Structure prediction request, 133 residues.
Amino acid sequence: MKIRKSISSDLDNIKKIELDNYGYILTEELNNDDFHTYFVIEEESFIGYISIWHDLDKAQIESIIINDKNKGYGQTLFRYALDYLNGYIITLEVRKSNVVAIHIYEKYGFKTVTVRKNYYSNNEDAYLMLKEC
Prediction:
């Protein structure tokens, strides 16, 4: 298993996994500026990615998508991102119904700070979670 910063040739895999999981594409460009970082995880092939926005001492985990669920890849990639963001105040949003992800985020020190009402396109609420490193 290998985790690395994304390169332009990863864009097609990232778009495909977004379409498969969300039904739409979020990412049009990779590492386009100094504020976004994408890491991909792969073994023999592409497994998933994490997208991070960061500036000065603040960061937001924007998206994490894994093809092979329940194999620990997501947590491995998440821990890698947390190590990368050491020293940042980190936020993320998570669906209220995603209890598995919420449990994982809490395990790594994230606390719920507020509810964002009707945050998702299906009007589901999101928790805004925060971790100070």
